[in-house]
Amino acid sequence: MYQPPLDPRPRSTTSGPTWRALLVRYVVVAAVPILLWAVSRPVTAVLVLGGVAVLGIGARRGYGLVRCFYDCQAMAFDLGGTARITIRQAPADDPCCPTR
Questions:
Q1: Residue 96 gets which letter from DSSP?
Q2: Is residue 63, in this structure, part of any structural domain at all?
Q3: Most confidently modeled of 18-27, 46-55, 61-70?
Q4: Does 27 fall in a domain?
Q5: What mean pLDDT do residues 41-50 have?
Q6: Average pLDDT over residues 43-61
Q7: How much is the CA Rg of the chain, to the nearest whole Å?
């Protein structure tokens, strides 16, 4: 019986799991009960999904406001197009601000 020659190239028979593959597995395992809950209570699931979306958008905008305040040292809010409220930190060397 003919036997083919051995391949001289080294090959690994198993490859170790990557961090990305492990993260995907954990997400899939966590998603199954959440999806079962969402199918059993669709109205509640839609409300929870909307709440999470609103919190995410609010957190991003809040983070943007904080960064703007740190960069510009001021923040302005328009009220109905007729008034603007500006919040600003007074510099330490401002002669108009008395020292305490």
A1: T
A2: yes
A3: 46-55
A4: yes
A5: 96
A6: 95
A7: 29
Q: What is the pLDDT of residue 99?
A: 53
- Per-residue model confidence (pLDDT) at position 50: 97
8 Å CB contact between 69 and 75: yes
The answer to whether residue 69 sits within a structural domain is yes
The Cα 38–Cα 35 span in angstroms is 5
In the predicted model, is pLDDT for residue 81 greater than 80?
no
The SS3 assignment for 8 reads coil
Burial of 45 (0-12, 13-18, 19+ CB in 10 A): middle
35: enclosing H helix or E strand: helix 19-40
Neighbouring C-alpha atoms within 13 Å toward the C-beta of 94 = 9
The boundaries of the domain holding residue 59 are: 22-88
CB neighbour list of residue 61: distance below 8 Å, 6 or more residues apart: none
What domain count does the chain have? Answer: 1
Question: What is the identity of the amino acid at 31?
Answer: A
Q: Is residue 39 part of a domain?
A: yes
Q: Which residue has the tokens 């002669």?
A: 95
